[in-house]
Design goal:
Chain B: Residues 7-134 form the Threonine/Serine exporter ThrE domain. Chain B: It is a multi-pass membrane protein. Chain B: It comes from Companilactobacillus kimchii. Chain B: Its main location: membrane. The complex is a heterodimer of chains A (254) and B (151). With 254 residues, chain A is mainly alpha-helical. Chain A has helices spanning 6-22, 27-40, 76-90, 96-108, 115-126, 137-160, 166-184, 191-198, 205-216, 220-252, and strands at residues 45-49, 53-58, 64-68. Chain A is built from 10 helices and 3 strands. In chain A, strands 1-2-3 form a 3-stranded antiparallel β-sheet, with helices on one face. In chain A, β2 and β3 (64-68) form a beta hairpin. Chain A is elongated and about 75 Å long. The radius of gyration of chain B is 17 Å and the shape is elongated. The termini of chain B are far apart. Classes of the chains: A mainly alpha (254), B mainly alpha (151). Chains A and B meet through α3, α5, α9 and α10 of A and α1, α4, α5 and α6 of B.
């Protein structure tokens, strides 16, 4: 294998770590993958990842890079592709240069399901199995569409505003308003069931569980960051819904 | 009837969340099956135990075991299977409910909901740890066998 510049390796490792972390991989997986790549080029690398930054240090000399990370939504496709790339690299199917190009390509890749499929997915999640025998079938049918709307609102607001948590709050607000309107004009039978069901794509349940998994694996810092994030998202959704309720009360006088 | 419907909607829910989180297409179907099976386990466990801990723990163990198996068969990180399968079990609605009570000023209800959410989350997390401990012992021979077969 050709001689590699240490700085290049460290920079690439940091990039890999940052992409993985941003798109929803656990910290232990990030650290393992980065150190795995280091081992594949015979450069011992120490990586420490928290939810806010990735530190990559080469053991041979004092080359250290810090990568700031802003954890966003899940995009598991990127996690999977990086994982495949690192496996191929360690089996020497890829050269270092090819790996570097591929990682950069993955980082800026926006390949995704199209909007229709996304909406369909969000709608399917919005029919919560938890409520199958508690809510009426028609309410669940309605929550399919209410959930799609909430997801779309959250998505559009998220694209236009950099303020954290505003997207999910607006999603909660629109779901709440729509559910109460449906109740008031007599179509739906329970606003609360529709709201809970339609909120399923937005609520931070999976981050909450992941955070507890991290805490159990002794990645306490990342776990706490994720837990705080989940609770903040919960608070903003809750406030969104409550504001929606109040608005409807004021407007319709119900 | 309950089991059949639970299976269908557990499947749809997992596939749907898989699409929302942009799972690779080849992992959608396995994730859906695992989510459906886990939801059936949840329902059945709920018949015998009315608490929140046992049903969640058992379904998490099932997700963990099957997820690790699928990760080997489809060759993907195991987290890709955990995330969509979890969506129907996860305490998202409880967190939302508790935070809504918090916003409305019902502190007692909020604290109760938050503790319940933590309990559900912890039982899921512990279920995963148990499943991972088991699958780390069981699956390596299978992995080796598959690698030899592919060669």
């Amino acid at each position: 294998m050709d001689v590699l510049d240490e700085k290049d390796v460290v920079a690439l490792c940091g990039q890999v770590g940052a992409v993985l972390l941003e798109n929803g991989a656990e910290t232990s997986r990030v650290e393992n993958t980065v150190e795995y790549i280091g081992r594949a080029v015979n450069l011992p690398i120490v990586c420490h990842a928290t939810m806010t930054a990735v530190f990559v240090n080469s053991e041979k000399s004092a080359t250290t890079r810090i990568f700031k990370v802003r954890v966003g939504d899940f995009n598991l496709q990127k996690v999977d592709r990086i994982n495949t790339l690192s496996r191929e690299f360690s089996q020497q199917k890829l050269t270092f240069k090819e790996l570097k190009e591929a990682v950069t390509e993955v980082e800026y890749d926006t390949s995704d399901f199209n909007l229709f499929e996304k909406c369909l997915g969000a709608g399917l999640v919005s029919v919560a199995p938890m409520l199958l025998f508690k809510a009426t079938w028609f309410d669940l049918f309605l929550s399919f569409f209410v959930g799609i709307l909430g997801y779309l609102v959250a998505r559009v607001v998220g694209q236009h505003s950099k303020i954290p948590y505003i997207a999910v709050a607006m999603g909660g607000l629109s779901i709440s308003i729509l559910a109460h309107v449906l109740l008031d004009i007599g179509i739906a039978s329970s606003a609360n069931n529709i709201i809970i069901s339609a909120l399923m794509p937005l609520v931070p349940g999976v981050p909450m569980t992941n955070s507890l998994r991290e805490i159990i694996e002794k990645n306490t810092i990342s776990g706490l960051v994720r837990a705080t994030d989940a609770i903040m998202a919960g608070i903003s959704i809750g406030s969104g819904v409550v504001i929606g309720q109040i608005l409807i009360k004021v407007v319709l006088g119900g | 009837m309950q089991i059949l419907l639970g299976f269908v909607f557990g499947f749809l829910s997992s596939v749907g969340f898989g699409i929302v989180t942009n799972n690779p297409r080849r992992t959608l179907m396995p994730a859906g099956w695992i989510g459906a099976i886990a939801w059936v386990i949840y329902i059945v466990a709920g018949w015998y135990d009315h608490g929140v801990i046992m049903p969640n723990l058992l379904s998490a163990i099932v997700i963990g075991l099957l997820g690790n198996l699928a990760a080997i068969l489809v060759r993907a990180p195991v987290n890709i299977f955990y995330v969509p399968c979890l969506v129907s079990l996860v305490p998202g609605a409880i967190i939302y409910d508790s935070m809504k009570n918090f916003t409305l000023g019902y502190d007692n209800l909020a604290a109760h909901g938050l503790i319940k959410a933590l309990t559900v989350g912890l039982s899921l997390a512990i279920g995963f740890i148990i499943a991972e401990a088991i699958s780390n012992k069981i699956y390596p021979p299978l992995k080796k066998y598959l690698e030899q077969k592919n060669r």
